[in-house]
Design goal:
The chain has two domains: 3-159, OB fold (Dihydrolipoamide Acetyltransferase, E2P); 165-258, Beta Barrel (OB fold (Dihydrolipoamide Acetyltransferase, E2P)), CATH 2.40.50.140. Helix content is 24%, strand content 30%. The protein has helices at residues 3-20, 65-68, 72-86, 118-124, 140-152, 216-221; strands at 30-41, 47-49, 54-57, 60-61, 90-100, 106-111, 129-130, 178-184, 187-191, 194-198, 208-211, 233-239, 241-242, 246-249, 256-258. It has a five-stranded mixed beta barrel with strand order 1-2-3-6-5. A five-stranded mixed β-sheet has the order 9-10-11-14-13, with no helix packed on it.
C-alpha cells in the first residue's frame, strides 16, 4: 500500500472514530494542552509543537527497524500514519502527574479535535505496541484491547515474524530487543526482596521475569503479590536481557497480562 493511500485511509478512519468518541476517557487525565499545534513529527514518535514543546505518546512504542531486527516498512508506515494525523493539526493533549519525562517531553494521551485517540489509532492498525513505563499504567486495558484487535487481524507489524509473540524457549536471538513473551509461570518466589518468575525448570538457563526490590514497593502498593503468578499463563513485555538465560524486568503489575 502506498504512502498516499495510507494517508487517505487514516484520515477516513480518524473521521469515523472521532464522531463516535467525542470525549477523552477518564484514564487519560485532564487536559494539559488544549491547542497543541504540531509542526513536526520525529521518527521516534515525538510530536513537536509550534512553541517548541514536545509531546511523548505515552503507553506505546512505534516500530523501529534496526532495534527490532525488522523490515523498515513498518517503521515508515507508522511514521507516515502519525505524521498524517498530527502535523499541521491542533490536537488536545491530556496528561497525568508526573507529566514530563527526563527530556522535558510531556507524556500525553493525544486526541484530535473530533476525539480520535492517536495511540489507539496506531495500535488498532498494528503500527505500535503497548509499552507502559514503570510509573504509569493508565489506560492499560484500552491499549491491550486495541493491540489484541490488530494482532488477531494480522495487521501491520503482526503480519511479520519479527514481531510475533515469543515463547519462553525462543529468545536467544532477541537479546537487546523489545519483545512480548507468553508462557506459563512454573515457579514464582521472592528472595532478598526481589521476585523471580521462572518460565522454565532451570532458572540458570531458562526465561525468567524479575522484579527488583525497589519495584516490589509498587506491587505492594497495588496489592499484588508476584508469588500469586505461579501456575498462571502470562504475557509479559520488555527489553530481553541475558543473565543466566533470557530475562525481562518488570516494574509495574500492569506491564503484564494474566491470561489464565
Amino acid at each position: 500500500m502506498t504512502r498516499r493511500v495510507l494517508s487517505a485511509v487514516f484520515l477516513a478512519a480518524m473521521s469515523a472514530c472521532g464522531s463516535a468518541q467525542a470525549e477523552a476517557p477518564f484514564c487519560a487525565g485532564g487536559v494539559e494542552i488544549p491547542d497543541a499545534h504540531i509542526v513536526r513529527v520525529e521518527h521516534n514518535g515525538v510530536l513537536v509543537l509550534r512553541d517548541g514543546r514536545a509531546l511523548l505518546l505515552a503507553g506505546i512504542v512505534l516500530p523501529n527497524a534496526a532495534q527490532d531486527h525488522a523490515p523498515q516498512l513498518f517503521a515508515d508506515q507508522a511514521y507516515d500514519a502519525l505524521n498524517t494525523m498530527a502535523t499541521g493539526h491542533d490536537l488536545v493533549a491530556h496528561a497525568i502527574y508526573p507529566k514530563e519525562d527526563r527530556y522535558d517531553r510531556v507524556r500525553s494521551q493525544v486526541f484530535t479535535r473530533d476525539g480520535a485517540w492517536l495511540q489507539i489509532e496506531l495500535l488498532k492498525r498494528g503500527l505500535a505496541r503497548v509499552d507502559l513505563t514503570p510509573d504509569r499504567g493508565e489506560c492499560a486495558g484500552e491499549f491491550y484491547a486495541a493491540e489484541a484487535q490488530a494482532r488477531a487481524a494480522h495487521l501491520g507489524i503482526w503480519s511479520a515474524p519479527a514481531y510475533a509473540i515469543r515463547t519462553p524457549d525462543a529468545l536467544k536471538a532477541d537479546t537487546g530487543t523489545f519483545q512480548i513473551v507468553q508462557g506459563k509461570v512454573l515457579n514464582a518466589e521472592v528472595k532478598d526482596g526481589r521476585a523471580y518468575l521462572n518460565f522454565g525448570s532451570d532458572w540458570k538457563t531458562d526465561f525468567t521475569v524479575t522484579i527488583s526490590s525497589d519495584d516490589m514497593k509498587i506491587y505492594r502498593r497495588m496489592g499484588v503479590d508476584p508469588r500469586g503468578y505461579q501456575g498462571k499463563l502470562m504475557r509479559v513485555r520488555g527489553i530481553v536481557q541475558w543473565l543466566n538465560g533470557p530475562e525481562i524486568e518488570l516494574a509495574n503489575p500492569k506491564q503484564a497480562e494474566v491470561l489464565q
